[in-house]
Specification:
single chain, two-stranded antiparallel sheet
Length: about 400
C-alpha cells in the first residue's frame, strides 16, 4: 500500500504562487476589459485631430482670432496682408462628439468626458507660441529675420506633426474598433497571453518562496502592463520622428542644406518625438492604467465580466495552477492537487445549483456596454457618410 506523504513544506511556496496568479489575474482582467471597452470609443475623442479644438486651442472661449489660427490653411498674399496672418482663422462650428453621441444619457456622457480627459494632456507651449508669433506678424507677412522665421516654422512643424501622428493613431484605433473585439474569445486570448508572459517572467524555481511573495509581485504585474503602454507610446514617438523629419525637410529646405542636410531634421525630429513620446506615455497611462482603478464604470464592467467570462477564466487559471503544481510539488502532492481540481470541476458543473442570475449592477453594466457598442456603430456610420460625401465632392470637382 502506497502511503501519501503530504510534505507540508512544499505547499507554502505553491500556495504563494497560486495567490500570485490570482492577483495578477485580477489586475489583467481590469486592464484587458478597459482596453476592449475603449476600442468602442470614437477615435476623435482619444486622438483629437481638429486644430481648432482642445488641446491645440488652449483658450476656446477667447474672442481673440489669433488664438484660433489653423496651421493647415494658409492665406494667399492679399488675404494675409488683410487679415494680418499668413494662416486662416478657425471656423466656429466645432462639432461636439460627446453631445452628439451621449445625448440623453448622462452616464455615457460622463464616461466619454473621462475618456477625453486623457487626450487633453499635452505639451501646449508650441501651439501657443505658434499663434503668438503669428499675431506679431500682423501686417508684416513676408520677413521678420531668419531666426524668428525659423522659430515660427518649427512651432508650426510641431503643431502639424502632432496632429498628423494623431490622425494615423485615430485611423488605427477606428480600424480596431470596427472589429467589435469585446467578446469572450478575444478576452480569453488576451488573458491567456498576459498570464503566459507573467508566468514565464516570474518563476523563482529553486529559490525559497515565502507565502507573502504574491504581494511583492504586484509591482511586477503593473510594470508588465506599463511596458505594453510604453511600447505604444514608443510607436507614437517613432511616427512623430518620421513625420517631423519630413516636415522639416519640406518647410526648411535651404536651412537644412546649409546646416547639413540630415543634421537639422534629425535633431528637431528627435526633440519633438521625445516630447510627444512623453505626452503619449502620460495619456496612455491614464487611459489604460489609471482609469481601471479610478473610473467606476470601468471597474463595474470588469467586475461583472468575471461573471460573464467565468468559464474561460476558471479554465485558464486551473491550467496555470497545474503548471505551478508540476514545478513546485512532488508527484504525490501533484496527485492530491489534481484530485482536488477534478472534484472542484465536478461540483462546479454537475452538482452545484444553477446561478441565481446577474445582479442589478451587472445587468446595468452589461446594458452600459451595449450603449457604448451602439454609439460606436453610430460613429462608424457617421464616418462612412462623411467619407462618401467628401468623395462625391472630390468627384464633382
Amino acid at each position: 500500500m502506497v502511503s501519501i506523504n503530504s510534505k507540508f513544506a512544499e505547499w507554502l511556496p505553491f500556495i504563494s504562487k497560486i495567490l500570485e496568479l490570482l492577483v495578477a489575474a485580477i489586475i489583467y482582467i481590469f486592464v484587458i476589459d478597459n482596453c476592449l471597452v475603449k476600442t468602442y470609443v470614437p477615435g476623435e475623442l482619444l486622438y483629437p485631430v481638429d486644430p481648432c479644438d482642445k488641446p491645440y486651442v488652449t483658450d476656446t472661449g477667447s474672442n481673440n482670432p489669433y488664438k484660433k489660427i489653423n496651421p493647415f490653411d494658409k492665406n494667399n498674399q492679399a488675404e494675409a496682408q488683410k487679415m494680418g496672418s499668413r494662416y486662416r482663422i478657425c471656423d466656429n462650428d466645432v462639432s461636439d462628439l460627446i453631445e452628439k453621441f451621449g445625448k440623453g444619457n448622462k452616464e455615457l456622457k460622463n464616461f466619454l468626458y473621462n475618456v477625453k480627459k486623457s487626450s487633453l494632456i499635452d505639451f501646449t507651449m508650441f501651439y501657443d507660441t505658434f499663434r503668438d508669433m503669428s499675431k506679431e506678424r500682423a501686417g508684416k507677412i513676408e520677413y521678420h529675420g531668419i531666426i524668428n522665421e525659423i522659430l515660427l516654422i518649427l512651432c508650426m512643424i510641431y503643431f502639424k506633426s502632432a496632429i498628423q501622428v494623431r490622425q494615423i493613431m485615430k485611423s488605427l484605433h477606428n480600424m480596431v474598433g470596427s472589429l467589435d473585439l469585446k467578446n469572450v474569445y478575444i478576452f480569453s486570448l488576451l488573458f491567456f497571453f498576459c498570464l503566459s508572459v507573467y508566468f514565464a517572467s516570474t518563476q523563482t524555481l529553486g529559490a525559497d518562496v515565502p507565502w507573502y511573495n504574491f504581494i511583492m509581485k504586484i509591482p511586477v504585474t503593473i510594470f508588465s502592463i506599463f511596458s505594453g503602454v510604453a511600447l505604444l507610446a514608443l510607436f507614437g514617438a517613432g511616427l512623430t520622428y518620421v513625420i517631423t523629419f519630413v516636415n522639416v525637410l519640406i518647410n526648411l529646405p535651404l536651412t537644412c542644406f546649409f546646416t547639413g542636410l540630415l543634421v537639422l531634421p534629425t535633431a528637431i525630429a528627435f526633440l519633438f518625438s521625445f516630447i510627444q513620446g512623453i505626452v503619449l506615455l502620460i495619456q496612455l497611462t491614464k487611459q489604460f492604467l489609471i482609469d481601471p482603478l479610478l473610473n467606476a464604470n470601468v471597474r463595474n464592467i470588469a467586475i461583472c465580466d468575471v461573471y460573464n467570462y467565468k468559464l474561460s477564466i476558471t479554465i485558464i487559471l486551473i491550467l496555470f495552477s497545474l503548471l505551478n503544481a508540476a514545478l513546485y510539488l512532488s508527484q504525490e502532492n501533484i496527485g492530491i492537487y489534481c484530485i482536488t481540481v477534478v472534484l472542484f470541476l465536478v461540483y462546479k458543473f454537475l452538482i452545484s445549483k444553477a446561478d441565481a442570475g446577474l445582479s442589478k449592477m451587472c445587468k446595468d453594466s452589461n446594458d452600459f456596454v451595449e450603449k457604448i457598442r451602439d454609439m460606436n456603430n453610430k460613429y462608424k456610420d457617421s464616418e462612412n457618410n462623411n467619407s462618401n460625401i467628401n468623395n462625391s465632392k472630390n468627384n464633382s470637382d
